[in-house]
Amino acid sequence: MKQRKILFLVLTAFSSTGGIEKFNRAFMSAMVRLEQTLFFTSCFAGMYDEQVDEQYVPAKKFRAYSGNRLSFVFQSVFRSFVTDELIIGHMNLAVIGVCYKFFRPNKKLIVICHGIEVFEPVTGLKKKLLQKADRILAVSSFTRQKLIDLQDVPQEKIIVFPNTIDPHFALTTHFSKPAYLQQRYGIHENEKVIFTLTRLNSEEGYKGYDKLISILPQLLQDGLQVKYILAGKADTTEAKRMQELISTLKLEHHVLMPGFIPDEEVNDHYLLSDVFVMPSKGEGFGIVFLEAMACGLPVIAGNKDGSTEALQFGELGTLIDPDSQEQLRAAIKNVLQQKKESGVLQQKMLSYFSFDKYKERLQQHLRA
Q1: Which pLDDT tens digit goes with each residue over 191-248?
Q2: Which candidate, 230, 250, 148, 141, places its Cα nearest to that of 185?
Q3: How far apart are CA 128 and CA 106, in angstroms?
Q4: Closest CA to 320 of 311, 218, 254
Q5: Calpha distance 164→264 (Å, rounded)
Q6: CA 142 to chain centroid
Q7: pTM flag (> 0.70)
């Protein structure tokens, strides 16, 4: 019996650390582990990747094109001609998927939709890609509904396929606060730490961290002793806007912006904190929420986007109206006054979003 050949194409998986890249790495790793069970061979390519991390994918299976877009497109189209199934990892690769279905109309095309790329009506090749796809994997119910409402995709074509915690994520069993970070940030024993880790982009504006800064004076007036760590790479415009807001509200001693946090320190920042807060309005899912819960950190998120999927519609964390400063204030006060049950939260999250669960879901979809 001849093995199926499945080709998975991405913009990048190993040259960045964003949510989509983390999804791609987990997806590839799961595919490699399912090859023998489902009797197929897989191969992968990244347009902007310069190398592969072999803990996820054997080097012989992955082609890195280092930003050579023309070479990536032409070679991927050519490779698709000898492929039984093509999985497109991002809408920006629409031209390859459309060519594939034009020349091989009876072969299966799967498209993965993460969120923001389908939150506005698409046209041209992207529209045709959605029309030609045999199946669309949406990372959340919110993204699925956007595909139905804005892109006119038949609902029976779309499957909710949520994210996962990274297969190599270091799960902790000890939830004590790292002393070196307490010392670095000047955090006293009686102070609570609010934490947000995200990209600070002046063109996005939906993450909600500015609203959190705006209510900090009220939290302080309520008698809470808190520090807010707003971490992540910021563009110049957004960094300036946040610093001006902090200065206007006289919060220089209460808001810390350490910028990019190296991978080896991310988990320790979760452990340092008492609550993770990101009341966003445009998340397709939010892997960062899973990472926080994997470290036993309670989460507060918005109820108007894919964050609801990551928090299992309120079962795993607190969902609020991201436009309500009063709800945000009340939620933070409530969480900080409760006793943390870190181990329980970690296990509840894993019961939904462990890599084993993710692999089981992918097995069902690749078998169908």
Answers
A1: 999 999 999 988 887 899 999 999 999 999 999 999 999 999 999 999 999 999 999 9
A2: 230
A3: 16
A4: 311
A5: 19
A6: 14
A7: yes
